[in-house]
Each structure stands twice: as structure tokens, then as C-alpha cells.
Amino acid sequence: MTQIGLNHFLFVSTVLFCLGIFGIITRKNAVMVLMGIELILNSANINFIAFAKYGNFGYQGQIMALFVIILAAAEAAIALAIVLNIYKTFSTVNVDEIDTMKD
């Protein structure tokens, strides 16, 4: 029987991080980009919790993960408000079609 160790958590975190980066780079929809950012933040949470358990850091990893969750909630609320404002102004949420502020 295989024991779950630190390497397993790091592998899952790496996969989530790569999927998040892939989602940010390849998607044109702003909501999908926000989902990619959430995946990256969740991969950081997995690292914090895993290193807290296997690295004898006590509760510091859990506390940092809690702060990241609070940050993600605030980021989601503000970013969705910005996306709604962009949709109201441009009638689209595609990131590549919003180029008014370039000038």
C-alpha cells in the first residue's frame, strides 16, 4: 500500500499551477482568465498546507492558506465587478477585444 507523501501534494500542486497558467495564456474570456488565477492560488494553498504538515511548520501553513482564501474571495469580487463594468461598456468580455485604453 502506498503512503501519500509530500511529493504527491507537490505533483498535484504543479498540475494545478500549470493548468492555471495554461488557462490564463490561452483563454480570451475574462472569466476564464479569473478561473486560471484561482487555480494558481489554490496550488499555492496546497503547497502551504503540505509544507506545514511535512515540514514541521506548525499552523503557519494553515494561517497562510486562510489568508490566500481571503485574498481570492476579495479578488473574485473585485474582478467580477470589473468584468461586469467592461461588459456594460464594450458588450464583450473577451480580453483581446478591449483595447480602448491602449491610446
Describe the structure.
- The chain is mainly alpha-helical.
- The protein has one domain (7-91): Helix Hairpins (Orthogonal Bundle).
- The chain is built from 3 helices and no strands.
- The protein has helices at residues 6-26, 30-54, 60-90.
- α1 (6-26) packs antiparallel against α2 and α2 packs antiparallel against α3.
- The N and C termini lie far apart (61 Å).
- The mean pLDDT is 90.
Itemize the secondary structure elements and their pairings.
Elements: H1 6-26, H2 30-54, H3 60-90
Give a short overview.
This protein is mostly helical.
Low-confidence stretches: none
The helicity comes to: over 70%
Strand content: under 5%
- CATH fold type: Helix Hairpins
Mean pLDDT: 90
Roughly how many Å apart are the termini?
61 Å
Taken in chain order, the helices and strands follow as HHH
Number of strands: 0
Largest sheet: none
What is the CATH level 1 assignment?
Answer: Mainly Alpha
Radius of gyration: 17 Å
Q: Compute the number of structural domains.
A: 1
Number of helices: 3
Based on CA inertia axes, which overall geometry fits? Answer: elongated
Structural class: mainly alpha
CATH architecture tag: Orthogonal Bundle
